[in-house]
Amino acid sequence: MGGNGLHRKARRGAQTFDAVVVGGGIVGLSTAYYLSERRGMRVAVLDRGRLGRGATWAAAGMLASQCEVEEAGPFLTFALAGRALYDRLAPALRDETGVDIGLRRSGALRVAFTEEERERLKRHAAEQRRWALDARWLEADEVRRLAPALAPGVLGGVYFPGDGHVDSRRLAAALAAACARRGVALLEHTEVTGWVVEPRQAQGPAAHPGGRDAGSAHPPGARRALGGGSGTASEGRVIGVATAAGELHAGAVVLAGGSWSGLLAAQLGVDLPVKPVRGEVVALRAVDVPLDTIVFAKGTCYLVPKADGRLLAGATQVDDGFRNVPTLGGLGALARAAETLAPPLAAAEVEDYWSGLRPGTADGLPVLGPVPGWAGLYVAAGHFRNGILLGPLSGMIVARLIQGEPVPFNWRAFGLEGRFGPADAPAAALAAAADR
Ligand SMILES: Cc1cc2nc3c(=O)[nH]c(=O)nc-3n(C[C@H](O)[C@H](O)[C@H](O)COP(=O)(O)OP(=O)(O)OC[C@H]3O[C@@H](n4cnc5c(N)ncnc54)[C@H](O)[C@@H]3O)c2cc1C
């Protein structure tokens, strides 16, 4: 293995798959779920810890497409499509696995405490109505009719009836159960330490995973890009991943490592500026606050009434590297914000308190699709505050790209091509990879 984590030559006897997914959070599990819809496709998901225990475990599970996104554009379109997908996904997962992911179309109410925020929210609602979306401006008394426990200082708000939430832990469990039923290899405690690469070869006939050439990661003729994905400008090909237990080879490799994705991409000379942003959430019980809808106050906190009777109050946003611990300061800040929003919460019982690392990107948008310069490699990362909302659709997009099937969404605004700083040439990374 080269010092940079790259392996140049494939070791004989490595396990082979049609697709290997690095990272078993919502994004990686969703990718495997949609890949495995195609019968006979051999898929593996690798996680260095337990499946679904990264940011996905920490999430409040909001599907807050309209509440979170203020401006019309590709991100709002993505967010709306991500939310809509849950209408099919939730019943499909229940039928296949028996797991109820707790989908609730509770609506979301975004409230204003200042005149400035009130004006801004009115514009937000008007903008969304221009896009034929249901966004209702409510005066202060109407807000209190909807959510009587809110503080008297609330000056009004926008109600988005289409937003809602799921239980992100159950969602991960359901996706994992569906994958297991379909024969996906779910490899926990298996850290990817590097990539298995080779120089790009001449293009051969098309080889789609699950198809005739599926038996080997790189049989004769299978070295061309799969599906409509990796570009012709490729200088190198990723043919697998390295772990302490050996190499796994695959026709397609998906990098879905959440906050750690940038570190893995850097081994290939790829600039993928994904950075961890810690978030902390407190779960409250015995709450004397009748609340059916999500309440969201920008810059302070949100409240999410879960189906099991808990009320989640979240979330801090802290730039503290990979330090993933709930802190007293975070708990204090959440307590003050929640009490300011709904004063009766002062008496609520603290049941649990946790943290997670959101995968943030330099421009705040997720990164999806083929990795320029490296045939066979795809990325699905950087979903920051909205990975539960966008994870299933991201997984479907990447799966369809790999399979060479029509993609039900124009993902190109989120592609890596030309988006961040110049990457080192794959050729340089390849040259640094040691032969064995
Ligand atoms: C407090 C908090 C609240 C949130 N609330 C919401 C919300 O309400 N709605 C919403 O849509 N989003 C929310 N999010 C964001 C959402 O949780 C994330 O965007 C999403 O979970 C990211 O999913 P992921 O699969 O990319 O990453 P993760 O869930 O972090 O999964 C990445 C996985 O990759 C694995 N991995 C990393 N490196 C390696 C390696 N080298 N080898 C093998 N495996 C590796 C990790 O172990 C991890 O399991 C919240 C996040 C936080 C922290």
Structure characterization notes:
Strand 14 and strand 15 form a beta hairpin. 28% of the residues lie in helices and 25% in strands. It has 436 residues and is α/β, with parallel strands linked by helices. It has two domains: 6-56 and 171-273 and 364-432, FAD/NAD(P)-binding domain (3-Layer(bba) Sandwich); 104-162 and 275-358, D-Amino Acid Oxidase, subunit A, domain 2 (D-Amino Acid Oxidase, Chain A, domain 2), CATH 3.30.9.10. It is elongated, with a radius of gyration of 22 Å. It has helices spanning 26-35, 55-58, 65-68, 74-97, 115-130, 140-146, 168-181, 261-266, 328-341, 387-403, 426-432; strands at 6-7, 15-22, 43-46, 62-63, 108-112, 136-139, 156-160, 164-165, 185-187, 192-199, 236-243, 246-255, 274-285, 294-297, 301-305, 311-314, 349-361, 367-370, 374-375, 377-381. The structure holds flavin-adenine dinucleotide (FAD).
